[in-house]
Amino acid sequence: MKATEGTTYRMLQSNLSRITTSLEELRIQGATGIKLTKPSDDPSSIRPVLTTRTQIMHTDRYLETMGVTLDKMESTDGHLDHVENILQRMQEITINSINSAMSQSDLDTLADEVANLKAELVDAANAQVDGKYIFSGYAETTVPFVENTAYDPALYNADDSTTWPYLYQGDPNPTELEITPGEKLEANLTGNDLFMGISNSVMQDPPIPPNLGYPSDTGRIDIFSVLVRTEEALRAGNVDDVTGAGGGLQENLANLDIAADQNRRLRSQLGNRASRVDTAMFHQEDVLIDLQQILSRYQDADAIETFNAIVQQETALEAALSITAKVSQISILDYF
Amino acid sequence: MGGLLTALNAGKTSLSVNQKSIEIIGNNISNVNTEGYSRQSAELAAYPSMNFGGFFVGQGVLVENVRRDHDVFVTNMLQEKSIEYGLQDGQTSALSELERIFPISEENLSTEINRFFDSWQELSANPSGLVERDTVIQLGELLSKSFNNTTDDLNTLKENINDSLLSKIDGVNSQIKEIAELNQRIFTIEIQGQTANSARDQRDLLAQELSYSLGVQTYYDSKGMMAVQLPGGLPLVQGNMAMEIEGVQNGADVDLVLHTGGVTRPIGLNNLGGEFEGLVHIRDVFIPSVQNDLDRLAYEIIESVNLLHGGNPTFGNPAGGPGGAGLDSSTGIDFFTPANPLPPPPASDPWKDAARNMSVAITDSNQVAAAQVPTPPETVAPGDNRNALLISNIGEDFLIDGIDNFGAYYGKLTAQIGIEANQNALSLGGAEDAMIQLQNLRDGLSGVSLDEEMISLIQYQRGFESSAKFLSTIDEMIGSLIDMKR
């Protein structure tokens, strides 16, 4: 068996094309930094890569949502602070009115101040952020608290919210946002829960007859009623008579305590949730970095490895080219 | 004198034989780069000796035969390997196109799906926002467009394969006809006792090319003619009769048929080999399975979103789903155009053509059902985001056969393509190497080596010179003989 020119050049050509093809692939790898450019590069790592990318997108979204949640909670907390201040001032006024000997005109002055505080409370309850009412539940375009035009002090019934001085037009559903896979968190407080002491689950069901409205939960109270009745008691000068105008200042002092507690308790609940969101944010940011690492392991090309391989292949290419040139120089025809 | 004249004759034979040998060498050298050429050499034999006064004297040399260096074993091996090589080569460009249609870079179908469900998550943070609602509709449309475009790309690939087949059929038919003609020519020449060397070379080369294209089998019949048949037995060349292959347009498809003397037979996948088999396999088996998976993915997305969005009953879910409500309290509105509304039940798989027809059904952003269905007479509150949260979570549920979520299903689909392409690249490399090795082997046995030819050239040139010298010596001897009588 002999070696003809045909066999020699065929071998040289196939080797050259093999080297240049693999060199091209390595150069693409080196230029893009990615070793997984098409499905045939590594079929078994396609699924982990796609899943990891999805997870990264989700984690970004959760971080965004948590940022929004924290913003909402912060603005809510600002208003709760204001409510705390109002209630504190109310307590001072009420204690003052009971303890010192005051004339009716003094009491009227105090009653005017209470009326102003009541207006401030209504403003705080009807606060808006970004054009939406924050204490309205889902009905974010509806004013949560409006004055009850049919309010009659004589008909006041603590168990029936339709007899109270302010009516709640909002929705008893707090906004839930998803902050981590499968976990939902209430991002705000509803007006009925905070100001009226009626829990959301009670208000989501129809009212129990013979009442047309809802009662506050045991140990909770409607804050608006307390302020309005305190004003009535001050104007009537009623300190002790529970059945008289406004139910008496003593009773209202006790109610103010309950109201302040109610505000503080919900405020601390909100604060706990906010710190939960904070820790979740830190955790998710770490998770994001881990995911990027996993993704990189599958799809990124090791720069040093790639460049080494390129140098290796280029050397082989040089050798093959020089041999090809040499072969063509030696021929029997030179010796004829 | 008789002896001198006889010697003159012997010298003359030597001159012409050496000339002929040099001609043959010249032919070899001219054809050094001709594909499929077998090196030819002259078989020299001594003239039968004659009895001169009791002992035999040779009468010179003659060319008995011009023989080509030929190895049947290697030729058959080359044909076999060409079939495998053709099969892999035919699939390569189609597979690399498929890899382009289903990429795994940053932008692919899985990213679109993720973005779509992500927009629902964004909507849940601001359910009454018109911008977020519009974004949901837009991303739904982009997703549908992606599915539509991918289906279009697959169809274009099928059309390209069809065009490719049609363009190759003419070439194949002319090769078949040529083999039949060569059969006739070789038979006519060899019946007179000569060997038709270059015609045989040509016929072998054509057989190899047909093996590459069609995966044919060849055998020699009783008259020494080459019979060619497709795998499965359909004949292409019988004796000096050539059959014809035709590509028949059948709607958007191209079917192959064989015309055998008046009878037309269809050529199916099991009757093909080589390049044609590769192309037809991709067109008729692989692409439809990819399309099927794509349709299934589109169908599952449409169904699961619609169930939570409008809740209308479909063929796959006759009981319907919970559904949600839009900002304008509208309910029962489908987000995507349903793939299989009731009735009637579909004739084949319920997800056939789902990817091609996928589109968004709503245009009014108020109808995007982010809220839960309110109990009447209540209307939908603008901050209600419960349905949006539910829909955004579909993306992670294992909804396809309870095993895969949407992203993972797409990953399976592309991995399938990747494995096929990878396999093809490996097989192609192996087949190429084998072909090169076999061709080198063939060249080693029947190729032209310039060194060999040059040396033979010297040999015959010297032979010619010495014969010429011999003749001039005889000439002088005859001259002296004649000079004897003055």
Structure description:
- By secondary structure, chain A is mostly helical.
- Chain A has two domains: 50-291, Up-down Bundle (f41 fragment of flagellin, N-terminal domain); 306-336.
- In chain A, 61% of the residues lie in helices and 6% in strands.
- Chain A contains eight helices and six strands, in the order H-H-H-E-E-E-E-E-E-H-H-H-H-H.
- Chain A has helices at residues 5-32, 46-99, 104-125, 191-194, 200-204, 223-236, 249-299, 303-329; strands at 128-129, 132-133, 145-147, 166-168, 176-180, 183-186.
- In chain A, strands 1-2 form a two-stranded antiparallel sheet. A two-stranded antiparallel ribbon of chain A has the order 3-4.
- In chain A, helix 1 (5-32) runs antiparallel to helix 8, helix 2 (46-99) packs antiparallel against helix 3 (104-125) and helix 2 runs antiparallel to helix 7 (249-299).
- Chain A is rod-shaped and about 140 Å long.
- Chain A starts with a helix and ends in a 7-residue tail after the last helix.
- The mean pLDDT of chain A is 90.
- Chain B has 486 residues and is an alpha+beta fold.
- Chain B folds into three domains: 2-69 and 453-483, no CATH class; 75-90 and 159-284 and 431-435, no CATH class; 126-158 and 285-423, no CATH class.
- Chain B is built from ten helices and 13 strands.
- A four-stranded antiparallel sheet of chain B has the order 5-6-7-8, covered by helices on one side. Chain B has a three-stranded antiparallel sheet with strand order 9-10-11, with helices on one face.
- In chain B, helix 3 runs antiparallel to helix 8, helix 4 runs antiparallel to helix 6 and helix 5 (197-214) packs parallel to helix 6.
- The longest helix of chain B is centred in the first third of the chain and has 61 residues, at 130-190.
- The mean pLDDT of chain B is 89.
- The chains are: A mainly alpha (336), B alpha+beta (486).
- At the A-B interface, helix 1, helix 2 and strand 5 of A face helix 2, helix 3, helix 8, helix 9 and helix 10 of B.
